[in-house]
Amino acid sequence: MYEEFDLETPAQLEDALRVLSDSRGGTPLAGGTNLIVDMRAGRERPERIVTLGNIGELRGIATGDGRTRIGSMTTVSDLLRAPEIARDAPSLVDAAKLFAGQMVRNTATLGGNIACGSPAADLVPPLMSLDAEITLAGTSGMRTLPLADYFRGYKQDVREAGELIVDIAWNRLPTKSVNTFYKLARRRGDAITVTGLAVTLCVAKGRCARARIALGAVSPTVIRARKAEAMLEGKVLDAELIDATAGQAARECSPIDDLRASAEYRRHAVRVLTRRLVSTAWYTLV
Amino acid sequence: MPNEKTIILRVNGRDDEVHVPSHRTLLEALRTSGHMDVKCGCEKGDCGACAVLVDGLAVDSCLTLAWTCEGKEITTVAGLGTTENPHPLQTAFKDLGAAQCGFCTPGMIMAAKCMLDDNPDPSEEDVRMGLAGNLCRCTGYTKIFDAVLEAATVMRKEGGPS
Amino acid sequence: MSALDQQVQPAGNVRFSQVGKPLPRTDAAGKVFGKTPFAGDYVMPGMLHMRVVRADIASARLVRLNVEKARALDGVVCILAGSDLPDRTAATDIPGQTGQKRLDTGQQILVKERVRYFGEPLALVAATTRDIADRAHDLVTFELEPLPGVYDPLEALKPGAPVVQGANNVVAERRIRKGDAATALAKADVVVENTYRTPFQEHAFLEPEVGLAWVDDNEVVNIRVCTQVIEHFRAIADAIGVPHNKVRIRGSLVGGGFGGKEDVTVETYLALMALHTGRPVRLEYSREDSFVGHGKRHPFILRYRTGITRDGKICGMDVDMISDAGAYVFLSPYVLLYAAVAAPGPYRVDDLNVYARAVATNNMFSSAFRGFGGVQACVAYEQQMDEAAKAIGMDRIEFRRRNFLKTGEPISTGFVPPSAIWTEQCTNMAWEALGAPAEPSDGPVRIGRGIAAYQQSYGRLTFLHDTSEAWVGVEVDGTVIVRSGVTDIGAGQTSALGQIAVETLGVTLDDVVIYNSDSAVTPLAGTTTATRALYMTGNATRQAAEAVRARFAERVAKEFGVRPDEIDMAFNTVFVIDNPEKSMPFVDLVKLCAADGIHRSELAIFRAPFSDILDPETGQGQAHPDYVYGAHAVEVSVDAETGEVRVLKSVAAHDVGQCINPAAVEGQVEGGTQNGQGYALSEEMLYEQGRLVTPTFSEYLMPTAMDMPRVESILLESRSGIGPFGAKGIGEPAMTPVAPAIANAIADAIGVRIFEMPITPERIVSALQEQRAAE
Fold first, then answer.
1. B81-158 CATH, one of 3.40.50.2300, 1.10.150.20, 3.30.70.20, 1.10.150.120
2. For chain B, which end, N or C, has fewer CB atoms within 10 Å of the first or last residue's CB respectively?
3. More confident residue, C3 or C393
4. Pair A279, A182 in one domain
5. Measured in whole angstroms, how far is the alpha carbon of residue A191 from the centre of its chain?
């Protein structure tokens, strides 16, 4: 890596935003586990990098009023160490445990994983399955929107120039809930996901009160299988319905052939994993 | 005109003055200033050979910019212990045959150190998770598990992380 | 039962003070304290940094190379292209000590006109800093005119296919003909026919290829480099046009080789640039360079027809093998030979026909990789054994028992190995060690077990006149020095020599320093390849140490008034065996000998047995000095819905003859298991028209700590090997049976076999879907 750049090291969020929206602009640097790799490969050639690593206010986990909030510079290892996350977001823990290797987990951030825009970003399906909301900040202020509305296309999102991700938040799930994530990859340790599935199931009065199925690495972005979810909500689930739902989820994704797997296999995996995760969740709860 | 400045990297308790541009990785800066015990295996965070501790946290030095490490404590395997005063991890790796070609060993030991600092009584599964980002082609990992678990036992007896 | 078949004993030292003990290796401390200098850790003032510019398509004509912009960059010192080099090629043939006639296997050093594989070097850049070298590399542009290429050996065999090498792409052929296979197959009760396909494999050593070269005051080109073969100095000298004694290879401790540093890698480029610039030059391959910078494991297509009787005897075998040699010959003819010899496996097959061909393509050239053809053959013959057992409804282990080669029986070439053949004992012990079978579940996860037995040679091909030298000397203060050219690639090659020397001299491993791997200064020991280092250099070291010991024993015998054979030496003490009170410290004896002018050192040469090359029509004769036998058993779980495989248990049983250091032997077994597990399940090199699309460790997936189970090693010691103290070898055998054991376990779990590797989740799902559709 030999391309030169200026490095800005703001200590406050407002300084970072100001720098990012000045006439030169810049590329935010969070953990660097994607950006540095991209720079070495020549895929990114920033002239100015704004490191967020000194902005303490962006890092941390807070709970209160039945809501959990994670700052965008919180690392994957931070997530693994936090009892609140283990309690409130088991799917996020499932994803974090299998996320790359220890050194990358120590450095990679929640915000960076979302911002890289890859459909294989493992933290995104769990957050989507929790109906998480994402807060963005720019010089003109902050805005919050559902994470499900954040992605526009492959590696494209709704951020305006100079906007940064500030935090992710979600409301704690009701007591009778299961929230889980499965990562299917070509090896168990430190591998790019072939198919990632996050499922949330909430049961009330013996019926499925809420169903969320978030799919990773099988579409240009992480998506919710909304039609599949709708098949489950309000119903008493049985094997036949779960099967049909799994088939529907498989139809909602648009996977590609790549060096890791074929589209056909990915669709098959979505069907198999949807059936499995939904079944396991349902029969745990009832 | 290269965007260079002189920074102080505090490595293994000593100050190294290095004159480096903004794009210089910590891995390159360390090796250029003589810390050859930090190894380069892939330069893209896939193999863990370059792992060092920055303020006690194991990171891939190939993915870290040198400029962002000013004022931080950097520890490499040579700073963890010496022949006269070895760290239990080093003793265990040496005595149990956990180092074969030895190229992955520095990064492996630093990753293990950070993991044990966080979790002094790990299960074997915890050790596997902690070392998933450190590739080894020679050992098949079995003796590495033995060495890390042995070191953990010794460290617990000696009373806490060191 | 042969005299060699003594009672089976698990590993256990009975009569040694140093050998047979799991001592910390002599190189271990340096490695854990970060002191060991690897080849990339050497720097010299004023050194230049190099990059290699590579072709980005596989089959092309080089039309134009533009170096002007790069040359104009401040700090660029030299750029070399093919047009700057005289018409010498780099020999890629096997290095011999005695000048055996070589095959015509030259590769151009830099492309002059024809590009034959993706990544083939076009130019070398040298600059004052790494950044400038990188920048200059990116400023070199080139124009390649695509030429029709061929990327599949079966396509390359067709008439009219583009010719990559030779007249018709067939770069080597091997035949083995024993008895009358055709008749035997015709008479068989059942003939089982299958075709197995094995893939490319990348060595994936953690240390990429790297070196530093300079020209010294004697006009000798010095090359500090990580290599398995310091004897390459001859080929390098020829390539750069200097006498052989003007190239000095200073090998470092190697950060992994596995066969990938067996050929010349960076040396010639370094030497050329050092000569052209008159400055020290450093070249370190990036991981991406490494993936296209050295030869891969040969893909093989193995068609087996095995004739069996209903009572479980193999009565005939016909094998057709085709290997993908890639763009240059390199070691393809020898890999082919090993595969052909190994074709029937460790079984008695008197009616055998093997026809093997190595075929050139525009893929990356294939060359040496741990197992060297023996691994690929095992993938086929051990799966074939399971299939054959299934065909007659016999237990897989019982079927093997009925066919195992026994001690004193001839292998495929008619040669009778001189050592014990304990395949059956190893198979039984590995299988039993799997323990009670796991409870079957009613979910989608299925459990299966598999075993594979093997035969793998140790020592190089016997027609090569292989030799190895070692020097052992005792200092006046009783400390010991060993000097040998052997390269240490991580298995403890040097420490083993130390352990042998100190055992023989009756001192301890702390008392020895070993100098290795310098072609000008350490006696040449030959390659660290072919599972030969312990056998050849261990024997040479033992010989040298014995010679010194004999002189010492004679001197002290005089002192004590006994015969030399009544003396023993251990733990730094010399004593009379039947009267140990009569003793003296070793160092005192050394001083006595020094005072008397007794020669305290010895240079020994060990010679492997020599044979003619195998008969070209029948393949009969002796190919190797001896063979290792053993087995590997695994238990796996297969998720029948996702296709994911987990290896739950992994047990190896090998007769290694005699462990020099059991911890080091276990380490090799455990590491070989990782290589084999990755080969079987997750390591895949994908090419599109010869272009590599899996160029780094995030696409090419070797097993991580989360993927490997604990590996259990059962080490048997028949003490019948022809290495030091009856040792055989373990380097390659450790890997050979692993992949087929896993393949057999998967087939056992899901009831259907996948005939190609790696056995990915997707391939398993497809196979199960096809099976369901067929029902």
1. 1.10.150.120
2. N
3. C393
4. yes
5. 16
Query: In A218-228, which positions are buried (b, 16+ CB within 10 angstroms) versus exposed (e)?
Result: bbbbbbbbeeb
Q: Say whether residue A43 is in contact with chain B using an 8 A CB cutoff.
A: no
Q: Which residues of C touch B21 (CB under 8 A)?
A: 131
Contacts of residue B91 in chain C, CB cutoff 8 Å? Answer: 32
On the question of a common fold for C39-147+209-284 and C300-461+613-774, the answer reads no
Sheet with A177-185, side-by-side order of all strands: A177-185, A193-204, A207-216, A223-224
Question: Which residues from C are below 8 Å from B28, CB to CB?
Answer: 130
List the beta bridge partners of residue A179: A200
Neighbours of chain C (3+ CB pairs under 8 A): A, B
* Pair (A266, A280) in one structural domain: yes
CA distance A227 to A245: 8
Spatial CA neighbour of C513 closest among C547, C487, C478: C478
Residue A1, in any domain of the structure: no
Fold topology of C39-147+209-284 = Aldehyde Oxidoreductase; domain 3 (3.90.1170)
ipTM, two decimals, is: 0.98
pLDDT in tens, A67-115: 999 999 999 999 999 999 999 999 999 999 999 999 999 999 999 999 9
The architecture in CATH of the region C300-461+613-774 reads: 2-Layer Sandwich (3.30)
In a domain, A232, yes or no: yes
Question: Of A121, A153, A171, which one is at a domain's C-terminal end?
Answer: A171
Best interface-test mutation with A: which of C644, C691, C702, C764 has the largest number of A CBs within 10 A? Answer: C644
The pLDDT score that the predictor gives to residue A62 is 97
Q: How far apart are CA C223 and CA C749, in angstroms?
A: 52
Of B76, B100, B144, the CB nearest to C490: B100
CA dihedral C328, C334, C336, C339 (to 10 degrees): -140
- Evaluate whether B40 touches B31 at the Cβ level (below 8 Å): yes
Is pLDDT of C257 > 50? yes
**CATH code for the part of the protein at B4-79:** 3.10.20.30
Tokens 């993938």 belong to C379
Considering only CA atoms, which of C631, C629, C637 is closest in space to residue C449? C637
pTM for the whole structure = 0.97
Half-sphere exposure of C599 (CA within 13 A, CB side): 11
A174 vs A87, A178, A200, A202, A206, CA distance in Å?
12, 9, 11, 7, 14
Could you state, in order of their start, the residue ranges of all structural domains in chain C?
39-147+209-284, 300-461+613-774, 467-607
The yes-or-no answer to whether B4-79 and B81-158 have a common fold is no
- Does the pLDDT at position C293 exceed 80? yes
- In angstroms, the CA C268 to CA C278 distance is 15
CATH of the domain at A46: 3.30.43
3-class secondary structure, C519: coil
CA-based nearest residue to C345, from C379, C300, C389, C307: C379
pLDDT the model gives residue C95: 66
Q: For residue A20, what are the domain limits? A: 6-51
Locate A182 and state its tokens: 């499965």
**Residues A67, A165 share a domain:** yes
How do strand C141-146 and strand C687-688 relate by DSSP bridges? unpaired
**B23 interaction partners in chain A (CB closer than 8 Å):** 1-5, 39
- What's the CATH fold of domain C467-607? Aldehyde Oxidoreductase; domain 4 (3.30.365)
Look up residue C400 and give its two tokens: 């093997």
C-alpha distance from B73 to closest chain C C-alpha (Å): 18
Q: Where are the domains of chain B?
A: 4-79, 81-158
User: Is any Cβ of chain A less than 8 angstroms from the Cβ of B125?
Assistant: no
Average pLDDT for residues C451-456, to the nearest whole number?
Answer: 98
